[in-house]
Amino acid sequence: MFKRLFYKLLPVQILIIAMGSINSIVDGAVAGRFIDAESVGVIGLYYTMINVLAAVSSVLLGGSSILCGKYMGRGDLKKTESLFSLNLTVAFLVGVILSAISFLIPGPLANALGASPSLKEALVSYIRGYGFGIIPMMIAQQVAMFLQLERKSAIGYTGIVAMIISNIVLDIVLVKVFRMGPFGLALATSLSSWIYLLILIPYYFTGKAQLKFSLSKIDISQLLPLLKTGFPGAALVFYLAVRALALNIILLKYAGSDGLSAQGAFGMVSGLEVAVCLGVGSVVRMMSSVLIGEEDRDGLRAVMKTALSKGMILSVVVAAVSAILSGPLTSIFFADKSTHVYVITKQLFLIYALCMPLIMLIQIFNNYLHASGHNLFVNLLSFLDGFLAVVVPALILARLLGAFGVWISHPTGLLIILIAIFVYTCLFNRHFPSCLDDWLFLRKDFGVSDDDRLELVVESMDAALSTSEKVQDFCTRHALPQKTCVFAALSIEEMAGNVVRHGFSADSKEHQVIVSVVLKNDSLLLRIKDDCIPFDPKDRASQFSDENPEKNIGIRLVMNLAHDVTYQNLLGLNVLTIRFPVLNQ
Q: Is-contact 567 576, C-beta < 8 A?
């Protein structure tokens, strides 16, 4: 089940991340062919600002993804809705501020981005055009994440495709036809961002959404935890922005305008190449947050096994394809293969392509550590990965090797990061890691012991009946009150059987039910997960009919027997949690 969920979430995450890079590649190709080669460098200079925008957005994305995952894992819909409303409100306000900066002081901003006198005017025009799209860009990125939590990935796919197509069309129209130059390039991206938002947002006005936006629901006390939780991931993006600025300065000094243009083209393409790695990392963070909220150690093992095995295979494939396409990708920006800028750009593309497996490993562990609360180390890792581990080697090697020295600073930095992760793992466990659990970095009090938990997979009615018997045996073995043993077994038989009878036959897909039984804090928790169509038993239990009093009687019986019942649809899974007290009965 976790593998299927992982594969469902991954494509849209990759597309969301790749979308910005695709738009940048289109902008760069149009700039290089219909304006001039220096315009590619202008876009490269603004890429630092794009990273700053991404850093701000990442604070909200990372914090909301992790906190909402934990709240939903605990069944706390009230806090989830409050965070949803807070997230969108802050995103809007930040978008307004950044848009105002783009319109009011584009000149000083261009200077801060490192524009030379010859490039400043073009960069100022680009900044102003981009300013029109910052608000929808900020909000749409947040909405896309919440749509995934609500199992509405199809809306995200539609929005992404519409944004990419509209950006391509508008780029050609505004630049080639109307000759609006760098301003037209940026304006095309801004308008496509509005199209993207207008496709995503209507779902939250239909009444079908599980999360409802309301200013009155905002709990301002959640702002600090949101920022604190989201900061480590955002710090990396911020450091990357500073790194890009530092590398631009180094390249201008030791490789001239050709080095800057090559770096600009790389900035546009690298996001597309690394999208698979970042997508896997985002899914790991999203799924791990929910499972940590549920304190599901087995689920975490399954997610990490899938990410490390399938993710590494994907990274090798991406590395091979990127290496093969390094020439054609370079030709998108610089058609003349005899020029120096073509040679060094292709060189950079090839070197970075070979880094994909290293990037995949770092993304998996960085996002997992972030979700599991190792914020201090993640902050350190972000500083190393985003700045220090690359800029210091680049400063040293550029003096000796020019642009090539900057290029090989990337794999050098990645190796430094992997060594840091290994050292942290050894320090955390106080021994060399020897199994997957050592790489999960979980505290000793996380979850419960294997003796106090039971996990079973149900794929048929016979399995549902045998699972009921095993649950009763588990309760009896732990000397729980007889009523609790009977009620727990009856609840599992009814609810798991109900999924098999109705959920499995609702479509032609293969399904399964995962039943977890946990004895913790003087309570017996029964958690039933399935990947069928959304179904809330609590709503169904309220549908009583005088004409048919036996309707939904099994579900109503469970609701009456249990001390507490919560339902959530988490990342496309139905999750029903039933709690029985085990003392004072």
A: yes
- pTM recorded for the entire structure: 0.70
How big is the CA angle at 192 (ends 239 and 260), to the nearest 5 degrees? 40
DSSP state of 215: G
Q: Where are the domains of the chain?
A: 2-439, 450-581
Cα(343)–Cα(265) distance, integer angstroms: 13
CATH number, domain 450-581:
3.30.565.10
Q: What string of H, E and C letters represents the secondary structure of 293-343?
A: HHCCHHHHHHHHHHHHHHHHHHHHHHHHHHHHCHHHHHHHHCCCCCCHHHH
DSSP state of 152: -
Model confidence band, residue 585 (pLDDT cutoffs 50, 70, 90): very low
Name the residue with higher pLDDT: 205 or 132: 132
* pLDDT digit string, tens, across residues 26-48: 777 788 778 876 777 787 788 77
CA distance 328 to 335: 9
pLDDT tens sequence across 329-366? 888 878 788 888 888 989 999 999 999 999 999 999 98
Q: Residue 84 belongs to what H/E stretch?
A: helix 77-104
CB atoms closer than 10 angstroms to residue 429: 16
